[in-house]
Amino acid sequence: MAERYQRFLETLRDIFRMPYDPTNMEPHLGKTFVTHRGYRIREDGTLTGNEDTEGAKIIMLAGIDPKRDLEASVMLNGYPSFQEFVLRCGQEPKKGLILAAVLAEEDAKRFERNGIITSPIKDII
User: Fold this and answer.
1) Which end of the chain has a smaller Cβ tally under 10 Å, C or N?
2) pTM, whole model, 2 decimals?
3) CA distance to 2, 10, 11, 14, per residue, from 5 (Å)
4) Closest CA to 65 of 101, 93, 23
């Protein structure tokens, strides 16, 4: 009986398992994402590696299927729509996916951009 109950609990966990959460920055702090250049997420959650957004606070980070590159580019122009796009389509960043990073609202205003999208990820260090 206990074994059946255990399997039931595992099934429930699988059903209700949350998909990738791009707002959870913890696993990405201190990592470098190598694309056509290197983007590093510092321990304080700020971005380095792009002179246009150097030191900007990142609030979401995700990998995006390269087939959605054009859609991501269009969504990048609107702050809420880019956030919604990353929440809806974002995956765990890995080789082959496009890196999408959403800037904190105050930094989006300061840098006059909502985030970044890159060429496909070549490596994660």
Assistant:
1) N
2) 0.83
3) 5, 9, 10, 14
4) 93
